[in-house]
Design goal:
Shape: elongated
Number of helices: 5
Helix content: over 70%
Length: 104
């Protein structure tokens, strides 16, 4: 029981410390990184949509099923980019990294 007392004291100090309750604020470098990641992911999405439209208009897609699957993937990428932008707005840089990594 004695070994639990230091842990309990540590928890009380941590919980009662107002600085511990504040969210971690992103640094200027991490904000710039998030902006760069979102910018690059946006370019990747633009390029993917352009390639898709050229293939669809050129009739080089093998089947309607392939076109439907490609559109679904592109829509998923667009949604990931939107979520990354929201994460950036919230200052959640780690989530920006995770979401933009899924786009590339």
């Amino acid at each position: 029981m004695k070994h639990l007392l230091p842990i309990a004291i540590l928890l009380l100090v941590t919980i009662s410390d107002p600085a511990a309750a504040e969210p971690i604020r992103p640094t200027q470098d991490s904000l710039a990184e998030a902006q760069h990641l979102i910018h690059d992911a946006g370019h990747s999405m633009d390029n993917a949509w352009d390639a898709f439209h050229k293939a669809a208009l050129g009739g080089t897609l093998a089947s309607p099923e392939i076109q439907t699957a490609a559109e679904a993937d592109l829509m998923k990428g667009r949604d990931l980019l939107r979520k990354a932008m929201m994460a950036q707005h919230e200052g959640n840089i780690e989530e920006v990294r995770n979401l933009t990594k899924q786009i590339h």
